[in-house]
Amino acid sequence: MTPPRGFDHVDTWVFDLDNTLYPHHVNLWQQVDARIGEFVADFLNVSPEEARRIQKDYYRRYGTTMRGMMTEHGVIADDFLSYVHRIDHSPLEPNPAMGAAIAKLSGRKLILTNGSVDHVDAVLDRLGLSGHFDAVFDIIAAELEPKPAPQTYQRFLDLHGVDPARSAMFEDLARNLVVPHRLGMTTVLVVPDGAKEVVREDWELEGRDAGHVDHVTDDLTGFLQRLL
């Protein structure tokens, strides 16, 4: 069995945003999730129950509900993003310990997210992490192709001149680590800490034992501190 990849060679640190840089139990994504359901129900003129079914079906098949709505129904991305990210960010609390740990990592720090830059900015501001990252690669930079699409990771690598063999990727969805691991990245799956109830689909919490997951942590701040 191949041992998990380490971090001694890493000079680029790549982080997902939602449920990665803040704990799952904040359930911030639950607000976005609810607004996605509202958007789908309104746009397709269907019941909340049917909207929920469509929403989750597209999420699984297309990587994001938005991609499914664009492909199947011609939704305009800007309309979707501006609606679903209009949420209350106040549940997020500053995390100076994580900020200090990220600041001490040697090399570049980048964010790779299926969300929008506006959402990233709002989250980082609440967490007190603004200024800790060198660049953000969002769904617009991805030309609206979400993770785990292989071309999205390649676009990210090319745009920012990232050598995957010298990079680490932190993610809360195991399926989004398949391609990074195949490309040569050290992969870290961030899972709920069990302190509070989380609102996630069962499949979203799977994959801890997958071969493409090098490390698993339920405490990203502590994990980064131990790396240092």
| Main β-sheet, spatial strand arrangement | 3-2-1-4-5-6
Percent helix range: 40-55%
CATH-derived topology of the largest domain: Rossmann fold
- Biggest pleated sheet: 6 strands, parallel
Order of helices and strands: EHHHHHEHEHEHEEH
Q: Give the N-terminus to C-terminus distance in angstroms.
A: 27 Å
Structural class, judged by helices and strands?
alpha/beta
Alpha carbon gyration radius: 17 Å
Total strands: 6
The CATH fourth-level homologous superfamily of the largest domain: HAD superfamily/HAD-like
Query: What is the CATH architecture descriptor of the largest domain?
Result: 3-Layer(aba) Sandwich
Gross morphology is: globular
Uncertain regions: pLDDT < 50 for 5+ in a row? none
Strand fraction band? Answer: 5-15%
Which CATH C-level class of the largest domain is it?
Alpha Beta
How many discrete domains? 2
Total helices: the number is 9
Mean residue pLDDT: 93
Strand and helix map with partners:
Blueprint lengths: L11 E4 L12 H17 L3 H15 L2 H9 L3 H8 L11 H9 L3 E5 L4 H11 L7 E3 L12 H11 L6 E5 L6 H6 L2 E5 L24 E3 L2 H8 L1
Parallel strand pairs: 1-2, 1-4, 2-3, 4-5, 5-6
Quick summary:
The protein is of the alpha/beta class and 228 residues long. It has helices at residues 28-44, 48-62, 65-73, 77-84, 96-104, 117-127, 150-160, 178-183, 220-227; strands spanning 12-15, 108-112, 135-137, 167-171, 186-190, 215-217.
